[in-house]
Amino acid sequence: MSITITQLRSFLAVARTGSVSGAADELVVTQPSVSAAVTALSREVGVSLTERVGRNIRLSAAGSAFEPYAADVIGLLEQGRREAREAAEVADRELRIAAVTTAGEYLVPALMRAFGDLHPDIALTAEVGNRGRVLGLVRDHEVDVGIGGRPPEDGRIVGTRLIDNEIVLIATRDDPLAGATVDTAQLRGRTWLLREQGSGTRTMCERFLEEHDLAPKVLTLGSNGAIKHAVRAGLGVALQSRLAVELELRTSLVATISLRDALPARHWYVLRSAVGAPREPARKFMTFIESEEALAAVERARLNQ
C-alpha cells in the first residue's frame, strides 16, 4: 500500500469542506490535483471513500470509517514533527489546551494562571468550544490536552479525573418550587432551557428528561450566560454546572429546586489522546493537576464566580 501524505491531506480537506473546490482552496492547490489524490487514495484503500450528492461531494460509509484513522496519521506526523523540532531546541515551548465552554469560562483560567506561575517558560494557548469540538481537537492531536466531561468509550481518548462537577437545577428566585424538594414529575409542563447541539450539558439534560419520562417544551440557547439570564427572566428551568452559577446562587439572582431523584453525577476530566506519548509540556501539566497548586486554583475558581 502506497498511501501518501498528500492523499490523506486532500481526503481530509474534502471531508471538512464537502467539496473538491473547497478542499483545493483550503490547500492552495488545483481542483484536479485534489480529485486525483482522493481517487488514488480510494484505489489504495480498495473502496470508494467519497460519493457525489448533486454538485457536492460527501464521504461514503467507507470514507466515514476511514476518516478518523487518516486524521490520526496526519496528527501523529504533525506531533512527531514538533517533537523533532523540540529535540533540536528549535520549536517554542507551548501547551495547547482545549476546553468545553463551562470549563473554559469558569475553571481553565485559574488553572492556566497557576500552571503558568510554576512554568513561566511554557507558552499557553486555549481554545473553547462545545464537547464535540474539544474531543475532535484532542483526537486529531491539534491540542495537547482538553478539559471536559467523561471521555468517550471508543478508547481513543483517555481522561484523568480532576474534580467533581456538581449539577443543580436552577429556576427564577420567585419560582413556587424554589428551595423546595420535589418529585421530578412535578416539573411536567415546565419549559426546559438547553444548550446548543454538541454540548455535553445538553446531552446530559436530554438523557435526564428521557430517563424521567419528561417530554417538555424546550428552548435552545447558545451559552451558559444566555441560559442564566433566561432563567432569571422566568423563561424556564435548567440543569447547570454549579461552577457556572455559583455567583448567581450566592447573590440570590437564581434559586435551586431540589429533586428527590438523583441529579446526574458528573466530573471534570483532563483529556488527552490515547495514541502517542504526550509532549513534555503536556506531561508537566498532567503532573501539575495532581498538585496542591492545582487544587488551590480550582478552589479559587469556585469562590471567585
Briefly note the CATH topology name of the largest domain: D-Maltodextrin-Binding Protein, domain 2
Q: Which class of the largest domain in CATH terms? A: Alpha Beta
Individual helix count: 12
Write the CATH architecture name of the largest domain.
Answer: 3-Layer(aba) Sandwich
CATH homology superfamily name of the largest domain = Periplasmic binding protein-like II
Outline the biggest β-sheet. 5 strands, mixed
Distance between the termini: 55 Å
Question: What report would you give on this structure?
Answer:
Helix 1 (5-17) crosses helix 4 (61-87) and helix 2 (20-27) packs across helix 3 (31-45). The protein is α/β, with parallel strands linked by helices. The chain is built from 12 helices and 14 strands. It has 3 domains: 5-68, Winged helix-like DNA-binding domain superfamily/Winged helix DNA-binding domain (Arc Repressor Mutant, subunit A, Orthogonal Bundle), CATH 1.10.10.10; 85-164 and 268-303, Periplasmic binding protein-like II (D-Maltodextrin-Binding Protein, domain 2); 165-266, 3-Layer(aba) Sandwich (D-Maltodextrin-Binding Protein, domain 2), CATH 3.40.190. Helix 8 (200-211) links the parallel strand 9 and strand 10. It is globular. The strands form 5 sheets. It has a 5-stranded mixed β-sheet, with helices on both faces. The mean pLDDT is 89.
